[in-house]
Specification:
The strands form two sheets. This protein has a six-stranded parallel β-sheet with strand order 5-4-1-6-7-8, sandwiched between helices. It is built from nine helices and eight strands. It has two domains: 4-15 and 86-215, HAD superfamily/HAD-like (Rossmann fold); 17-79, DNA polymerase, domain 1, CATH 1.10.150. α1 (17-28) crosses α4 and α3 crosses α4 (65-79). Helix content is 42%, strand content 13%. It has helices at 17-28, 37-41, 48-58, 65-79, 92-101, 114-123, 147-156, 168-177, 208-215, and strands spanning 4-7, 14-15, 87-88, 105-109, 132-134, 161-165, 181-184, 200-202.
Length: 218
């Protein structure tokens, strides 16, 4: 069976912080608050509810209850169509095409809500590339719980697999799922590369098909 290659999204395939930052500032402006890109980037990775709660806490605003529920609803309304500032990382499209050509089975496993995830994949013409997409609200739990990653693999039909991500959350998820982890070093991690458990680290997507083949030989 050909390998399954399961990808995180934000910080791995796309640089989405500019749109997340703009969307968060648009929502928080109603409460007299704005944030720098670095502030927002520091909270990306554990899903939209966590992002908004941490941003609210940093400004002394409520981080739960009705306030948080309304904030999340407003953010998702704005962010659903926010793709203009998001960019694919260099080499992503060619690497995905090469993996497809090799017969690899591809999926997304992200903590981004499913609606914005599918919207941004359509925006870049990648929706057909990923027959399986697990978002942060697809299951009752999110990464680093291994359940979303294992659900993606199960929907791909099981078999040999690797997980490709950029962050502490992704490294912990791969460990919990006992899958090989390829660490993209140009994303949103805050921890030194040497301190993150991984099988292979890479900074150029042109390397990825070869690295996958090295971890899961045909």
């Amino acid at each position: 069976m050909k390998p399954a290659v399961i990808f995180d999204l934000d910080g791995t395939l796309i640089d989405s912080v500019p749109d997340i930052h703009a969307s968060a500032n648009r929502v928080f402006a109603a409460h007299g608050q704005t944030f720098t890109p670095d502030e927002v980037r520091g909270f990306v990775g554990r899903g939209a509810p966590n992002l908004l709660a941490r941003l609210a806490e940093s400004r002394g605003l409520p981080s739960g209850g009705a306030f948080q529920d309304a904030l999340l609803a407003d953010f998702l309304t704005v962010y659903e169509t926010a793709q203009d500032l998001t960019r694919l990382y260099p080499g992503v499209q060619q690497a995905l095409a090469d993996l497809e050509a090799s017969g690899a089975r591809l999926a997304i496993c992200t903590n981004k809500p499913l609606g914005p995830t599918r919207a941004v994949l359509r925006h870049f013409g990648l929706d057909a590339v990923f027959p399986v997409v697990i978002g942060g609200d697809s299951l009752a739990v999110k990464k680093p719980d291994p359940a979303p990653l294992m659900a993606a693999l199960d929907q791909l039909g099981g078999g040999p697999a690797v997980f490709v991500g950029d962050s502490e959350v992704d490294a912990e998820t791969a460990q919990a799922a006992r899958l090989p982890f390829l660490l993209y070093t140009e994303g949103y991690r805050k921890t030194p590369i040497s301190a993150l458990p991984h099988d292979v680290a890479f900074d150029d997507f042109a390397q990825l098909p070869r690295l996958v083949a090295g971890l899961i030989p045909a």
